[in-house]
Specification:
This protein is of the alpha/beta class. The protein contains 13 helices and 8 strands.
Amino acid sequence: MTLLDPRIAPPRTLDELRQETVKRITSGGYPGRGVRPVDAQTAMAALTSLDPEDWAKVWMAVGDRVVDEADRAVPDAQGTLFQSAYAAYTMGRFPTIATPGKQASYEKAISAYMRYAALLPQRLEVVRIPFEGSEIIGYLRKPDGPGQFPLMVQCGGLDFWKENVADEALSYMPHGIGVFAMDMPGTGQSPIKGDVGSERVFSRVFDWAETRPDVDSTRMFMRGVSWGGHWATRVAIAEKGRLLGAINHGGAVHYFFQPEWQLKALGTREYLLDLFGARANVFGVTTLDEFLAYGPRMSLLNDDRIDLPCAPMLVMNGAKDSQVPIADQLLLLQRGDAKEAWINPRGAHMGFGAGWGPDRTIRDIIAPWLLKKLAQHAAEHGHG
């Protein structure tokens, strides 16, 4: 497999990549949210090739300058600057850790994120859980005050990693819900690649949660966003007895994993760069043929897994999603246990667009659903 494989859209030229990157960041598009437009212009002006090491180098240089700026700034300005540095370093590792430079940029991103997080009112706890000779690294954010709180374990997707999830977790704190942010298999610092059975990494987190005196292990949830929604579905089945609910938010079920859909997606230039490299890295494969052969094994139709009993589920997406076919969500609704759904008829991936963004979706759909499940549990078990 080479970049010249006719089944994959050719990469943008150097000038196209520069222009498209600045355009997306200036307009607040994805990826690059949080990057200052002036920093995007600086990085792209310095980019001299399509070499991923060059990409990582120019973004790390920008991130380093923003960190220096933060170190010299007044305390009130430091948080925003460290956040901007984190965003720049994240662009450096985007979309996946495929080279030493991208690895270095990700390590710098984590460092900048920790400096930003340390300045927020809500404390971030870095959690390390032993796992099969390695470890699960996650971030715990919990509401203020003593006592046991309900916990939602959440993973991101292909390039939306646990640092992004930990920021999103702030939206759940006012509702009294703690969040454990982690990377889905095959991304970030996950100790395993994506494969049938990789949902066991989430089961290990729920085991850990049961040992925490500040977590009410009778009130736990799982949410996966984008590709992570696939894992939320597997966890809903594997952990049916331990969860009050699970949310598949735009996640793959069956059709996404088929060669026909993958070739359609890989044949477009919707993704900024190296969509194939990012997706292949989830499975730990390198060639297109390996990737296309690997995907179908992940379908939840295999062994009729989709028909197994599962925890209560909320299924979410946009009808016009071009990343994960809406047919996957509809299939999930038609098989197995009854589920609830929120489908935005005019929404794109994850239902966003047409007036719906991440903040509104959490506020109006996800948080109310979690609170409803908690209220039902309280009514049945006398919980406060």
